[in-house]
Hints:
Chain A is an alpha+beta fold. Helices cover 27% and strands 43% of the residues of chain A. The first copy, chain A, starts with a strand and ends with a helix. The A-B interface holds A 40-43, 50, 52, 63, 65, 67, 78, 80-86, 89-90, 92-93, 96-98 and B 40-43, 50, 52, 63, 65, 67, 78, 80-86, 89-90, 92-93, 96-98.
Amino acid sequence: MIELEVKVPCRDLAGLERRLLSLGARHLEDLEQVDMYLSHPVRDFGATDEALRLRRENQRSRITYKGPKLDQDTKMREEIELEVEDLERMSMLLERVGFRPFMKVVKRRRVLELEGVHFCLDRVEGLGDFVEMEYQGQDLGEGKRRINELRTRLELKGNERRSYLELLLEKG
Amino acid sequence: MIELEVKVPCRDLAGLERRLLSLGARHLEDLEQVDMYLSHPVRDFGATDEALRLRRENQRSRITYKGPKLDQDTKMREEIELEVEDLERMSMLLERVGFRPFMKVVKRRRVLELEGVHFCLDRVEGLGDFVEMEYQGQDLGEGKRRINELRTRLELKGNERRSYLELLLEKG
């Protein structure tokens, strides 16, 4: 399963939401996401463009590995994700084998769906507002077509390839 | 929570089970455990006396970290354990960050309880039969007393400090 993701800064999330709804988008969910990114015992995840993340999302706990970006335009990358019983214990276990918590990203995310594309309207603590368009599927070409068509229709300009983590790190 | 564990080889598991039941032991459960031990990307878990294990036990999936043994007589060590949603995905995620599956341990375990001590009657594929006496609690002295009293009463001789993993590795 490939996840295709395009992110752009957005100055007016409320306006975008109204426009999406008027085009027939469905509201899927509201999430509060608290992410803890971990550093590897010897590998520099910044240099290898990987990430290991522990996420608390509403009441769920998950661990996610993100591989390097595979594509210049989008943020396509391998993702391996699963639920875990307890985030504190998972974190403690990983610390014992040399991983270290090094950056926290907190955001509120409202998710809408239009024509098979998920729109994540994100308010990121310390960074501002963004919209992420996500297409999940096997057909990369089809995903790119749909996302580009919707971006044009919604006049969403820009392409922020950096993750919230990278943006926060650069902000210092 | 400290786990105190003493293991001895046992030539007659069926006889030991009868004897335990005649002393009033309760049968708790029967388990089929398939353990995959992982090697660390740079640390030699053999040298540091640690272990990282993925276990499928009947229908449950868990990950466990075991710290170095803290005691000469028993096998007392820190354990951090939690359930995970999917063992294959957990394994794949760990492989992406440099861990490698390196040894599988398969056993059938019958668990009985007597006077707060768990008796695990183990048939280990490729190794033979053992009994593990386990005490979980805060009071190390009390645990040692109970286990030693029961060992004497049941005439369980020997003290195998090596793990099944170590025994299988030494067997080659």
